[in-house]
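ok trying this again, last paste got cut off
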Amino acid sequence: MYFSDYQLESTDANTSAPQTSSSQIIRYLRWAGCLLIILSAIGFMFQSHADLLPAYRYWVGLAIVLALCTGGLACNYWLRERTGARLFFALGAAFLPVQVSQVSAMLYAYIQGVHAPQPEYSWLQFAGVQPTLIAADLAITGFMLLAVSYTSFSMLAKRQVKTLMQTALLGNLVLLLPIREGYGLPILIVLLFTGINFIERLFQSDHTMKLVEGVTARALASLPLLILIGRSLLYPMSFWLAIAVAAIIATIGIVDIKRYTQSALTVYFGQWLGTLAALSIWPMTVQHFAGLSHNVYSLMIPVALVMFALSTQVAYHAKVYRSLASVLATILVYAALLNDQAFAPMLALSTGLALVVIGGLKLREKAPFFLGQLNFLGGILFYCGYVVDAYSNAPWLFSICLGLAVLILASVLEKKHQIIAHTVGNYLNELKSWE
């Protein structure tokens, strides 16, 4: 009996090893096939055949989508293999936003005319397409988008098909709009990113959306936003577009990336990339509205505030962020004071008070606490200059006031010296326990 059981266990172990190796080979083959299809499609778009009309490029892309859907149907109904079917339809759904973007380029060229700003790459220009053909392409793309996206989402994440379809249709509708410049494009990008980000947070409560199929479905729903951002970078960069892209990179790199991966290296890299993007927003704003010069120290104080705010969201080195923000704020405040910039004294007092209260008393950190006191002292000393000027006009009055203050201080020390000594001792002991 024991020998028979051992034989069965040995047989199972021997048969499981080939299955594992074969599954790895199948996985590698699928990855290779996906890369070949994607790279081939990208290579066709970048070749920019001189003798190929813009409308024909759309039809070649549509043929690729139909071929992928045919492969998915063959896997599902002929081979009875669901994984391959899901993969084929996912690739087809991923190619459809590219088709939508091409139809959008046709609409843009037709509405704006020959003088419309066009990207330098000829393979992205769709001028000279007739309205009838644009309408036909639009109808075909809409039908394919509904059919292929619904089939793909049904295979990948059946419980969230409705939400995924709404997200995908909204993204492709925004991608279809013939807007390439002005204030409209950054607004559309920010609104679409906000909507997708909100839906992504709702998906966090569904464990099936964290599986490979669920992550693939979420990526497909977010693909129109990525294409919209990538397409916008092919045109001259405007100030508002740069701000929108930097804000999105900062949000993803610092806040959102922690929801998608547990890799410490990825989170660390994303944090620094997001930090650089967030810190670049305010200098770009100052440059756009005021211009950078030698006396903009007070205008750069928000950079320190941004670092302090980022310290509440980052996964690593939060204390370092606050310390660097405190040092930067101190340097900028004293530079503004020495340059006699407007509102520099009030800025020193407010910055010092904020660092003392938030960084010191609330977070119990020494660097913001002492640097905040230094900032506050700088503001006080600036106003003391007015007192010195007034003293030169009436020295006897200030001498009397100083004498009265000294006498009152002596009386307070006489009456409260034990309480003061005890309070100072508690204060020093409390500082020792801070970080």
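PB: full thing came through this time. Residues 301 and 329 are 6 Å apart (CA to CA).
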